[in-house]
Amino acid sequence: MNPPDDPESLRATIQANPSYRLAHEDGDLLTDADLRPLRLQLELVKPERALRQHAIRSTVVVFGSARMAAGGQGVDPERAERHRRYLDEARRFAAIVSHRFQEEGRRDFVVVTGGGPGIMEAANRGAWEVGARSIGLNITLPQEQLPNPYITPDLAFRFRYFAIRKMHFALRARALVAFPGGFGTLDEVFEVLTLVQTGKMAPIPIVLVGSSFWSRAADFGFLVAEGMIAPADLGLFTVVDTAAEAVSALERFYGGTPPP
Asked: Which residue, 54, 145, 128, 144, is CA-closest to 90?
């Protein structure tokens, strides 16, 4: 075969071809369906490294609706007042827990939320107001959910995969406190209940804030009556109405100070 007339031009063509990219610099490769296992691993590893670097030993997960706003939602004044009360209690709860467990440099019971608005923002704000760290696990959605401004910047993460995000909620969790919410909140609550019920996760206090909401959103007594869950399963969670009651539920579960 004769040598090329313009080898430098051909060399440049080769170097510009996507096949010549270093694998970790090849955006097309990293977004390919075949690389999904690697993307899942990256989403698991990246936040984990950061949490270790910040010596975060344990967390308390706070769930709740992104749709609650301080000014109320819609035109119903009673609903607006309920939502304001839930936001206040989420903020108060996060402040109490964060102050108690981070005041001397400890990194226990660090508040972690989904990183968005509503209840999530209220909880991150409660931690921020007492000078404590808090975590936000945001996720890409069709309508992009922006991170709320009260997350500790080094502890703000964004996920593509719900499954890996769920793992990070659970890995260091020493408590779950759920305020009223929609499908996302219900999904997370029932997943943790299932993990604890089936022994796939060590028991933790699961606290549902807002008795009037939860009594209608999930009729647990009906599930018992229908034989879908055991009567003992009602002991997996506690229903309260205030931040102080939520803190007391955590204290009863751990008999005082929670372990790291």
From this structure: 128
